[in-house]
Amino acid sequence: MAGHEARTGLLLVLPAALFFAVFMLYPFFSAFWYSLTSWDLVSPPRFIGVTNYVRLFQDDAFWNSAKVTAYYTVGLLVPMLPLSLALAMLLDRKLRGRAVYQAVLFAPTVLAAVVVSMIWRVVYMPQGGLYQLVTAPFGLPYIPWLNDRHWAMPALIIVGIWKNVGYYMVIFLAALQGISPSFYEAAKADGAGSWQQFRHITLPLLRPITLFVAVVSMTRAFQGFTSAYTLTGGGPADATKLLPLLVYEHAFSFNEMGDASAIAVIMFLVLIVLALIQFRTFRPEA
Amino acid sequence: MRSLWGALIHLFLAAACATVVLPLVWMVLATLKTHEQVFTQPMWFIPAQIQFGANIARVFTLIPFWRYFTNSLIVATLITAGDLFFSTLAGFGLAKYRFPGRDVIFAVIVGTMMIPFIVIMIPQYIIVRNLGWIDTYAGLTVPFLISSFGIFMMRQAFLGASDDMIASARIDGAHDLRVLFQIVVPLYVPILVSLAILRFLTEWDSLLWPLVVTNSDRMRTLSLGLAIMQNDRYGADFPTLMAAALMAIVPVVVLYAFLQRYFVKSVASFGVKE
Amino acid sequence: MSRIGRRTLVTGAVSIAGVAAFGSLLRDTARAQPKTLAYWGHNYPSRVKIVNEIMIPGFKKDAAIDVDHSVLDTSQLEPKILTAWVGGGEGPDLVSVGDYNLPNYVYRKMVVPVDPTAFGLTSQAELIALFEPHALDGFIVDGKLYGIPMDQGSISMVYRKDFFREAGLDPESPPKTWEDLIEVAEKVTKRDASGRVTRAGLGWEARTNTSHFYYWGTLLPQKGVDFLSRDGKTNGFNNAAGMAAFQYLFETFNTWHIAALGLAPTISPIDDFGAGRVAMMNTGFWLPPSLEAQYPDVSYAKGVYGVMRLPQFKGRTPATRLNPWIFVVSARSRLQREAWQFVAYMTKDPKSQAIWATQAQYLLPFKGMSTQPDILRIPYAKIFLADLAIGVPTPRTVKFAELASSVANGYDRISANGERPEVVVPDLAKQVDRLLAE
To answer: A124 CB near a chain C CB, below 8 Å?
Structure first.
C-alpha cells in the first residue's frame, strides 16, 4: 500500500519536479557559473573568476543603473502602497457605488503593460498631452516628460502607480474584509477613536498581508522592464536605465553573457537581502 | 458632519476613477483624429471627418495584427493550460501522498518562487537556443509551462480536501487520476479559475521573454509587436498607435466587463488568510 | 493496484511522447523549408516593396529559389542578427544591414567572403573592378571582400523651401557652411508664446544608437577628427578640434536654440520633416521617395523642399559621412552560393540598379553609376553624388555596439541634460578608450 502510494505520489510530482530541475534550478546555478566567465556566445565560455564583478563595481554605467533602480523601486512603493491601502479602507465600507469604484480602479491591472505605455506616451506628449489638464492649473503648461532627465523617472513612476494601485488595493481590501468587526466594536466600546482603531487593530492585523504586498511589489518593481523599455528606452542619458535594461543590453546588444549574468546575480543577492529585511520589519508579533 | 465626510470620500474615489478613465478616453479620442489634430487641437476636439476607419486600417498595413494576436493567444493559452494541469497533478501529489523527499521537493519548489526571472533569463535563453527552439512556440511556452506559485496554491487547496471522500472513492474502485480529476478537482474550480486568469494575464502581458526568444515577425506576440511598432521610425503616428492599442485591449476590457468579479477575486485571494 | 499504476505510467509515457512530437512539429512548421533563402532586412518601406514585389518573384522565376523575407525594425535588426548568428543555425542566410558591424561579424567568423562565381566572375579582383574605385574599400577585411553594397549612403541635407520663403530667405541659396547656417536656422525656427521651440531650424534626428554617426556625427570628420583615432585604438576627439565639434552641437541646443528635442515622441525623421517640425535635416538619398509618399504636399517638384550639400566648417577640408548598407551572408548558411546569387540578381543588372535608384533612391556604386541617365534624371542626384565623393566611413571597431551606446549617452547629456562639452567630452573619451582596450 505504502509502496503504491509513494510511487503514485512521485509520479504525480515528477513532471513538475523535472521541469523545475531543468528550467529553474539548472539555469539558476548556471547563472552563477556564467557570471564567472567571459562569453560572447561564439567561442566557448572562458573562466575569468570574479573579473566581471570587479569591472562592474568600477563601471559608472552599472552604478547609475543601480541608483536609478533604487530610485524607481522606492519612488514607486512609497506613494503606491499607502495609496492602495487608503483606497482599500475607503472601499471597506457600506458605500454606494462601491462595486463600480472597485471595478474601475482595478481595471488598469488587466491592461497589457505595453498598451499602458503606449497610451501614456501620448498622455506625456509635451505639446498637447493630456497631462496638461492637471498641470496647467498649477502654472506648468509644458513638461518635456520623456526627454528630460528630471521628469523621465517621475513619468515612469506615475505610470507604475496608475497600473498597479488597483491590484494592491484589492489585496488589502480582501484582508481588511477578513478582520472581524467585533474587534472594532470592542475597541469602540472602550472609547477608542478611528485613528486609534487604525493603529492598534487594523495595522497589526494587516501585518502579514503588508509583508506579502511589500515583498511582491518590491520584487516586481526591481525587475521592471516593460514600461522603461517602451516609454523611454532607458533614456534620456540613461536616466531611466533600470538594471534589467542593462542586463538585456549587455546580453543581447554587446553579447557579453558573463557580464550580464553578473549583473543579474548581483540583483538577486540584493533582492534576497531586501526581502529578508522586510521579513524582519513586518514580522508578525510573537 | 457625517455627510460631509461621506461626500469627501466619494469625491476622492471619483477623482481616482477619473485618473483611470481619462487616459483611456484620451486614447479613444485620439483614434478619431489625424496626427496633426492630436498635437494641435484640445483634447475634446472631435473632427468633422472622423479618421477612425482610416487609422484602424492603417494598423493592418503596418503590422500583421491578427498574427500577433493569435500568437499571444496560443502562447498564453498553452501556458495557462499547462500550468493548471501540472499544478493540479503536482499539488495533489504533494498534498495527499506520502513519499520520500516530498517535503524537500515542496520546499525547493516554493523556494524557486524567490528566484527572479532576470537571473535565469540568460541561461534559459541558452537552453532554448541549444534545443533549437528560438523563434518557435515551444521556445515561447515551455520554459514557463509550470509555475511554483500554481503548485503552491493547489497544494494548499488540496490539503483541505476531505481524506474520507478520497478514501471512499478509492474503495469504489476509482484509480488515482480519476479520483483527482473527477472527484476532487470539481470542488476547486474557483481556485483554478483564479489561477487561470492570473496566469493568462501575466503571459498576455509578457514582453521581455518574447523579445529575447523571437527573431522573426511571424512569431511575435502582441505585446512585442506593439512595443516595436511604437518605436517604428517609418510610419506609426499617434492615432495609428492608439488604434492599435484600442484593438489590443478591447477583448480584454470586454471580458473584464463581464467577468470582473472573477478577475478581482483571483487577486483578492492573496489577501485572504490561509 | 499494480494494474492501475501501470496504466498511469502508460498514459504518462504516451502523453509525453505526444507532446514531444507535437513540439517538434511546431518547430518544423515554424522553420523555413530547405532551398528557401532566409533574408532579413530593415523596415524601410521602399526597400520592402522592391524586394517583395520585384526581386523575390523575379529571382524565383530566374533561379527557382524561394526567398523568405523577414522585415525587422531598424533598431532591432542588429541585435537580432547578432544573436541569431551565434545561435544554433536558426539565423538568416542573407541580411542587408548597416556596414558598421562588419568588423564584428568578420572577427566572430559569422560571415563569409563574397562568392565571385555567383556574379558570373572568376575572381574577387574582377568583382571589385565592376565598382567605382575605392567604393568597396570599407567592406574589405584582411584582403577579402565581405559585403556588397545595397546603398552607398552619402549624407547631404534637405531643407524646407517654404519656410525659407516665409522667413524672407532665398530658397535657392541655402547655407553652405555651419557658421552661416546658424543665422538661417534662427530665422526659420518657430517658437510659441513661452519661448518653446515648435519648429526646429535644424533637426538632429539621432534616435537610434547608430544614427548618431551620420547626423551630428558628421561634425567630427568635418573638423578633421573622428570618434576613433586613425589606428582605431583610442578615441580621436579629445582634442581642440573634437571639442569644437561638440561645442557646435551643444550650442545648437543650448545657445542658439535652433535644435530641440521632444517635438514629437515618435521617432520618424520623415514625419518631423514632412509635418514641418524641422526646417533643415541631414539625410541620405533614400529619404525623398518615402517622404513624398507619406506627405504628398511636401513635394520637390513643387518647390516645397530642396536638397543642399551638407554644410561644412569654414576653412576645413569638406567631408560627409557615408552610411552604406550592405548585403552579407552567414557563415552558417547552407545556401551561401544561392544567397550571393540573389544579391547578384538584385544588384548586378543595370536594370535592377535603375529600380533601386528610382524607387528607393539607393545608390549602388557600380562603375559608371554617376553617369547613369536614370539617376541623373533625378534633379538632386548630383548633390548626393558630389557628397558621395567626400564621404568618410563610419568608425570601424569590433566593439561598435558599445561605442554607439556610449556616443548616444554623450549626446543625451549634451542635448537633453544641457551638460557642457568640457565635462562630457573627457568622460566620453574615457569610456571609449576603456571599451577599446578590453
So the answer is: yes
Delineate the domains of chain C, giving CATH numbers in brackets: 20-152+325-382 (3.40.190.10), 156-321+395-437 (3.40.190.10)
Radius of gyration of chain A (CA): 23
Q: Which of C246, C179, C250 is nearest to C218 (CA)?
A: C246
C109–chain A Cβ distance below 8 A for any pair: yes
Q: Classify the complex by whether its ipTM is higher than 0.90, answering yes or no.
A: no
Candidates C2, C90, C198, partner chain B, best to mutate (most B CBs within 10 A)? C90
Cβ–Cβ contacts within 10 Å for residue B26, how many?
21
The three cell numbers of residue A222 are 526591481
| Cβ separation C417–A149 shorter than 8 A | yes
What is the C-alpha separation between A262 and A32, in angstroms, rounded?
A: 7
C409 to chain A: closest CA residue: A237
User: Of A46, A48, A251, which is closest to residue B125 (Cα–Cα)?
Assistant: A251
Note every long-range contact of A45-54, with CB atoms under 8 Å and residues 24 or more positions apart, other chains counting: A45/A257, A45/A258, A48/A258, A52/A258, A52/A259, A52/A261, A52/A262, A53/A262, A53/A266
The C-alpha atoms of residue C438 and residue C429 are separated, in whole angstroms, by: 15
| Per-residue pLDDT band at C1 (split at 50, 70, 90) | very low
Give the SS3 label for residue A270. Answer: helix
Q: Is A86 helix (H, G, I), strand (E, B) or coil?
A: helix
Phi and psi, residue B97, nearest 5°: -125, 150
Q: Does C191 touch chain A (CB under 8 A)?
A: no
Chain C residues contacting B, CB < 8 Å? 4, 7-8, 11, 23, 26-27, 30-31, 40, 43-45, 70-76, 80, 83-84, 87-91, 207-208, 264, 266-271, 275, 290, 294
The pLDDT confidence band at residue B274, using thresholds 50, 70 and 90, is very low
- For residues C224 and C316, the answer to whether their CB atoms sit within 8 Å is yes
CA distance B68 to chain A (A): 14
C306/C329 Cα distance (integer angstroms): 37
Exposure of A211 in the CB half-sphere (CA atoms within 13 A): 16
State the cell numbers at B161. 480536501
Contact with chain C for residue A8, Cβ under 8 A: yes
Beta carbons of C42 and C72 less than 8 angstroms apart: yes
Q: Is A41 on the interface with C (CB under 8 A)?
A: yes
Domains and CATH numbers, chain B: 67-232 (1.10.3720.10)
pTM of the complete model? 0.85
Task: Please count the residue pairs, one from chain A and one from chain B, whose beta carbons lie less than 8 angstroms apart.
Answer: 287
Q: What are the phi and psi torsion angles at C172 (to 5°)?
A: -95, -5
Q: What is the pLDDT of residues A50-64, one digit of tens each?
A: 999 999 999 889 999
d(CA B240, CA B229): 10
Q: Which domains, ranges and CATH numbers included, belong to chain A?
A: 61-282 (1.10.3720.10)
Residue tagged 517622404 (cell numbers): C291
pLDDT tens digits, C180-234? 999 999 999 998 877 778 899 998 988 788 889 998 999 999 999 999 998 889 9
What span, in angstroms and rounded, lies between the C-alpha atoms of B212 and B118?
A: 12
Amino acid at B112: T
User: What distance in Å separates residue C415's CA from the closest CA in chain B?
Assistant: 20
